[in-house]
Specification:
By secondary structure, this protein is mainly alpha-helical. It contains 17 helices and 4 strands. Helix content is 74%, strand content 3%. The longest helix is centred in the middle third of the chain and has 28 residues, at 199-226.
Length: 336
């Protein structure tokens, strides 16, 4: 058993391990090349999060999906660079919207250089991703454009909140299917498509990525509450402080509304109050960590990961399929 990449996937096949390691190394080189500019300051800002590391979850999925065709096909690595550049760009923008101070264990770009530089750097990364896409053909461009529309729509829906009468949990799951699931679905799609895999395999890995992406985001929701900054690479409770309604909080509110339990109502009131006070913020985190809502969110994470695994069933047994199944387990493990 060997651990591959920052995400920590265990791969039991030496040939697959070598392919994935080589692919991720090539992606890393591609990211550094794509973030270079003739202006040294732009290079520094654009490479800020690249050099901070990260899980490289999306490139890993591209690499594994490509195993169902020709993993050495010329479009595989560039498409992995595209999805990671796109993801990085959204992080720069997300940190501005969330006023986040840390990302991947380092100061966020907005806290280091200000909001304007962070937003423009994200735009720069989008432009570089588009340049690479242009060489991958019109179908790749169309897929990316559709995914990006879903990603932005998910962000807008999150900002707008659920319409009257809509279940907040259902609304939130739609939001993260767009914000997170769409790009991870593209990762599976690009890997299979660029490798020349059969169309049926492409569709399976696309749907797998969508489901796994939802599980991945739900695991992040749990981590935002349950982890410390060393484990998650960002300040615990960032979403709480910014009033972002993650799944554990939505489950808490639903429970409070259904039962009227005084302790739950009190905790909801704290969440609705000013969490800029560190002592209040710490108290909310402590109480949420002990609340059944957090465990309910963990169960939801497991459910989506299990659904992702089930989607893989029609694929032939092979080391790549086993690795994709283990990726489901790795996502669940992140949520504890």
């Amino acid at each position: 058993m060997t651990v591959v990449g920052p995400f920590g996937l265990s791969v039991r096949d030496q040939a697959l391990e070598a392919d994935v390691q080589a692919g991720l190394a090539a992606v890393e080189e591609g990211l550094l090349e794509a973030t270079k500019s003739e202006v040294p300051f732009i290079t520094e800002a654009a490479q800020h999060l690249v050099r901070a590391g990260g899980k490289r979850f999306r490139p890993l999925l591209v690499s594994l999906a490509a195993q169902f065709g020709d993993p050495y096909a010329p479009g595989v690595v560039p498409s992995a660079v595209v999805v990671e550049l796109t993801h990085l760009a959204t992080l720069y923008h997300d940190d501005v919207m969330d006023e986040a101070a840390m990302r991947r264990g380092v100061p966020s770009a907005n806290s280091r250089w200000g909001n304007s530089v962070a937003v423009l750097t994200g735009d720069f990364l989008f432009s570089r991703a588009s340049q690479i896409l242009a060489d991958l053909g019109p179908e790749a461009v169309r897929i990316q454009a559709e995914a990006f529309e879903r990603l932005v729509t998910g962000q807008i829906l999150e900002t707008a909140g659920p319409r009257d009468g809509r279940d907040p949990v259902e609304h939130y799951l739609d939001v993260i299917a767009g914000k997170t699931g769409s790009l991870i679905a593209v990762s599976g799609r690009y890997g299979a498509m660029m490798s020349g895999a059969d169309e049926g395999v492409v569709e399976i890995l696309t749907h797998y990525g969508e489901r796994l992406g939802t599980a991945f985001q739900l695991a992040d929701d749990v981590l935002d509450i349950a982890s410390d900054s060393h484990e998650s690479g960002k300040t615990p409770g960032t979403d709480l402080r910014e009033g972002i309604p993650t799944l554990p909080v939505l489950h808490l509110r639903a429970h409070a509304e259904a039962t009227g339990a005084p302790a739950d109502l009190e905790l909801c009131a704290l969440l609705d109050g000013d969490l800029s006070d560190d002592a209040v913020h710490a108290e909310v985190l402590r109480r949420l960590r002990a609340h059944p809502a957090l465990e309910q969110a963990r169960r939801d994470t497991v459910r989506y990961a299990q659904e992702a695994r089930a989607i893989l069933a029609p694929l032939p047994a092979c080391p790549a399929k086993a690795a994709l199944e283990e990726l489901c387990d790795a996502v669940v493990h992140r949520a504890g």
